[in-house]
Design goal:
Length: 296
């Protein structure tokens, strides 16, 4: 069975649109888990009224998308997790059937990264394309990747749990990157699958600016410290911290940048004690993915 996990926060109208497209799916059994992350709008009441079959998990406080995804995954019953952001929708009524067929036909695949399109259903959502190959040439090509977007993906539950799930101390942003690295480090395979498509409506959220000026620089540093061997961590972090500093200075966000660095340094002692660097062969494998297209 497929378990659909949807974290949401104050997106009542958007998540209702998504659910309306989910419950038209045919050809596969599924359950839907919505993790409400402390919303103060009518999300929970409206889901219960309009889609009573939905399992609702309510967070008492706002704990972030990473922890909300983890809560949904751990509470799920399916062997395949389909993760969707609450501002997406599905135009293909056979998407879940296609996902089931994909995993049955690809025993060696552990995670499928969906093709994410803008609301017109045609244009690539390039802001969510962090794959190792250029979107212009490979948007419609299936290939091995080192990334998947939390906006739309499918993953074997045992692979997600065995790889440590999403890092909750990130709160939001870059949590998919770390989980992807952990998956590859365990020998799992991530495939970008253009036949599995979702529409992203990019609903505005109050935290969007916070993502760019706080969570992005902080979590890049946390990712390097927690996941990379020392030399690679320095090589990864230094240019990114410098770039984020210059961008913050140019745009007048230095205060937020230094708050982000302070937050990262406060977490460093515990992160260093528990850090689990990926293997160097994993880093080499990801470099190879970024230098050649591996079709599957």
């Amino acid at each position: 069975m497929i378990s659909v996990v949807i974290p949401t926060y104050n997106r009542c109208e958007a998540v209702l649109v998504l659910l309306s497209t989910i419950y038209t799916q045919t050809g596969s059994s599924f359950e839907v888990l919505v993790v409400d992350d402390g919303s103060d709008d009518a999300t929970v009441d409206e889901i219960r009224r309009q889609y009573p079959a939905t399992i609702i998990l309510e967070n008492i406080t706002n704990i972030g998308p990473a922890a909300s995804r983890n809560r949904g995954i751990l509470a799920s019953s399916g062997i395949i997790i389909v993760g969707l952001d609450s501002d997406t929708s599905i135009s293909d009524t056979s998407l879940f059937w296609r996902i089931k067929e994909f995993f049955e036909q690809h025993d060696g695949a552990d995670c499928a990264a969906f093709r994410i399109l803008k609301p017109d259903g045609v244009t690539e959502d390039v802001e969510r394309w962090w794959h190792p190959l250029p979107v212009g040439n490979y948007g419609n090509v299936q290939f091995l990747s080192d990334y998947f977007s939390g906006t739309g993906y499918a993953i074997r539950k045992h692979a997600a749990v065995g790889s440590g799930l999403f890092p909750e101390h990130f709160f939001m942003h870059y949590e998919e990157v770390q989980l992807a690295w952990r998956l590859i480090d365990r020998g799992c395979k991530i495939l970008y699958v253009p036949d599995l498509t979702v529409i992203h409506h990019v609903n505005p959220v109050s935290t969007r600016n916070t993502v760019e000026v706080f969570f992005k620089p902080r979590n890049q540093l946390l990712l390097a410290i927690g996941c990379l061997p020392l030399g690679n961590a320095v090589y990864y972090a230094l240019p990114r911290v410098f770039f984020q500093f210059t961008k913050a200075a140019h745009r007048g966000h230095l205060r937020e940048f230094f708050l982000a660095m302070r937050s990262a340094f406060c977490q460093m002692p515990s992160l260093i004690r528990t850090r689990q660097p990926v293997q160097r062969q994993t880093i080499r494998r990801m470099k190879r993915l970024r230098n050649s297209c591996v079709n599957v």
